[in-house]
Amino acid sequence: MKYIIPILFFNLLLCQDIGQKMFKNGDTDSAIKYYQHLLEDEDLSKDNIIYNLASIYSSVDSLERAEEFFNLAIQDSLNPSAELSYNRGNMFFKSQKLEESLKSYRDALLKNPNDDEARKNYEFVKNEIEKNKQNKQENQQENEDSQKSENNENNQNEDKNQSDENKDDKSNDSDKNPENNNNDDGPSEKESSQSPKQENNSDRQMNVDQNVENILNAMKENEQVNKKRKQNNYSNESGKEW
Fold first, then answer.
1. End-to-end CA distance of the chain
2. Which of 127, 152, 170, 228 is 20 to 30 A off residue 70, Cα-Cα?
3. Count of domains forming the chain
4. Does a structural domain hold residue 30?
5. Structure-derived torsion over alpha carbons of residues 24, 29, 31, 37, reported in degrees to the nearest 10
6. 185: part of which helix (H) or strand (E)?
């Protein structure tokens, strides 16, 4: 009975080696199928199998499946190893989940403070988070400045349009009331001494008066001529010579 546990452990190591050989030889699909088959064996411990599946999925950038199996590995393990936390941090970084990645690297350093790779990755991800925050703030400030500039431009256009509308209104009022225009250029029609009609009547009356005067003058001349003729006739009849 005391030989059962060592034999099972040896068989588990042998199974793990087979899967690892498949993966190292580039046969990723076969390695995944092999480990999934091992998960169905109730007599085998699932911790290492799940961890290996998570690592393989992460290496081929099947990140959703990798995250699924890493979460299972964390849940099933009473004391997750530094290596598990480190690889989980790598998976989160590939998924651009920087906060989760930073936490995983921190867990790896807590379990193994001498892990230089975990420390470098931790510092790198921390700097990336700070850069992203700074870029976000700068972009937000640029958007606010752009919005303010756009609002100012819109307000200026509105003021210009309002000014143009006021000018148009004044022009329309001037067109509707022409008597209000050019008040200094001369008297209005009501203030004019004579209208064009009155001027025509006056000219016509002057012509009539001139014609009458001409007729009277002609009549006077005829009368004088007739008077002279009468005098001449009278002198001839008397026999006197002039």
1. 200
2. 127
3. 1
4. yes
5. 180
6. none
Residue 108 · residue 86 · CB < 8 Å: yes
Average pLDDT over residues 122-144: 93
The reply to whether 24 falls in a domain is yes
Helices (H), 77-115: 82-94, 98-111
- Does the pTM of the predicted model rise above 0.85? no
Report in angstroms the alpha-carbon separations of 97 from 3, 63, 138, 160, 194: 46, 11, 21, 50, 97
In angstroms, rounded to a whole number, what is the distance separating the alpha carbons of residues 114 and 228?
162
Q: What distance in Å separates the CA atoms of residue 40 and residue 132, rounded to the nearest whole number?
A: 43
Please enumerate in sequence order all residues whose Cβ is within 8 A of that of 163, keeping only pairs 6 or more positions apart, or say none.
none
Residues 108, 95: Cα–Cα separation, whole Å: 19
* Residue listed under structure tokens 């007729």: 215
Contact between 118 and 112 (Cβ < 8 Å) = yes
Has residue 192 been placed in a domain? Answer: no
CATH at 72: 1.25.40.10
The pLDDT tens digits for 194-233 are 556 566 666 666 776 676 677 667 777 777 777 776 666 6
Positive or negative, the Cα torsion across 200, 204, 209, 214? positive
Residue 112: exposure state from Cβ atoms within 10 A (0-12, 13-18, ≥19): middle
**Which structure tokens are listed for 12?**
């588990």
The range of the structural domain enclosing residue 74 comes to 4-133
Q: Looking at the domain assignment, is residue 164 inside a domain? A: no
